[in-house]
Design brief:
CATH class of the largest domain: Alpha Beta
Pfam families: APH_6_hur
InterPro entries: Kinase-like_dom_sf (IPR011009), NH2Glyco/OHUrea_AB-resist_kin (IPR006748)
Radius of gyration: 21 Å
Organism: Kitasatospora aburaviensis
Number of helices: 11
Shape: globular
Number of domains: 2
CATH superfamily of the largest domain: Aminoglycoside phosphotransferase (APH), C-terminal lobe
Distance between the termini: 57 Å
Largest sheet: 5 strands, antiparallel
Order of helices and strands: HHHEEEHEEHHHEEEEHHHH
Number of strands: 9
Strand order of the largest sheet: 1-2-3-5-4
Helix content: 40-55%
Protein name: Aminoglycoside phosphotransferase family protein
């Protein structure tokens, strides 16, 4: 039984909890366009309807650039669950499709309910739920997750290609670089210090990486790719790491190794050692392809960082790997 048309108050949902803060509205508008404003205005009512339909009590809100996430309890037993809503129904549909394809894996969060038309997913809780970004992690502990993700059948999955996904990422990178530094990756000029890049150099590096990504995406194996698999999107679970928040596509699964290869790395030997450890433990992975994808990833990660003025050893190495 649902409560279609109920107000937030009628459904027991605090309007304050469901209201989208101004800074989050701004990020959602950058990502989804002007229509995100109307979505934010309507969100308290949508949350109320879903809370009634799925028997939820909404406790707290979070999320930012692509979705709002609500910590809830469900049913008489007060089981902890997470309600996730996005302004783009297609994003919700694709995430639900991928999570259902991975449903037999303990290393992926479970989707309990979904309503793609409303941009909504109801997800199981993961305990303890700390992200791997919050602690030291080791390649050996994430390798089983990386192997499991690529192991499921992809026949019949209605998802876009990895080539389309990386094109989107490059478009987004160009917008972020432009917004961060109108004059270039660092706002500098020709002849800047090492670790800086002019607008022309950044554009050239992005162009080279875009071409390499297209070549890799067109020539590799095909599997279900998470697409946003970094330490912030992997949680500590009861039996090991658990992946959340996919941006799924079909294509070369070695793409999912990139963040694990480059995270915290500050020189080429360390990168090659990390790749060797991962490739030895993830069935079907190719260290040469992983390194090539790392060159692509270096541009996607480092160019916006540098445009925002970030100066650290990891970013400096990634700029070097990117040819910047």
């Amino acid at each position: 039984m649902g409560v279609h048309g109920a107000s937030a108050a009628e459904a027991g949902v605090s309007t304050a909890v469901a209201t989208v803060p101004a800074e989050v509205r701004a990020r959602l508008t950058v990502r989804f366009g002007a229509s995100a404003e109307a979505w934010c205005d309507a969100l308290p009512g949508v949350v109320a309807e879903l809370a009634g339909r799925w028997r939820l009590v909404v406790r707290a809100a979070g999320g930012g650039g692509t979705a709002r996430v609500f910590r809830c309890t469900r049913g008489a037993g007060g089981v902890s669950v997470w309600l996730k809503l996005t302004p783009d129904p297609e994003v919700a549909r694709q995430e639900a499709a991928a999570l259902r394809a991975w449903a037999g894996l303990a290393s992926v969060v479970r989707v309990l309910e979904d309503d793609p038309a409303a941009g909504a997913l109801l997800l199981a809780d993961v305990r303890p739920g700390t992200t791997l970004r919050q602690r030291a992690w080791h390649p050996e502990e994430v390798a089983p997750l990386l192997g499991a993700l690529r192991s499921v059948p992809v026949d019949g999955l209605a998802l876009g290609t990895l080539a389309e996904r990386v094109e989107f990422l490059f478009d987004l990178t160009e917008r972020r670089v432009s917004a961060g530094a109108p004059g270039g990756v660092t706002g500098g000029t020709t002849g800047g210090a090492p670790g800086t890049a002019t607008g022309a150099a950044a554009a050239a590096a992005i162009g080279r990486a875009r071409a390499l990504a297209a070549e890799l995406a067109d020539g590799g194996p095909s599997a279900l790719v998470h697409g946003d698999l970094h330490p912030g999107n992997v949680l500590d679970g009861p039996a090991g790491p658990v992946a959340i928040d996919p941006r799924p596509s079909l294509g070369d699964p070695d793409f999912d190794l990139v963040d694990w290869a480059i995270d915290g790395v500050t020189d080429r030997p360390a990168l090659e050692r990390r790749i060797a450890v991962l490739a030895a433990r993830v069935p079907g992975s190719d260290p040469e392809r992983v390194l090539a994808w790392c060159r692509v990833g270096a541009v996607l990660v480092a160019a916006p960082r540098a445009a925002a003025g970030r100066r650290d050893a990891e970013t400096a190495f990634l700029l070097e790997l990117a040819g910047l």
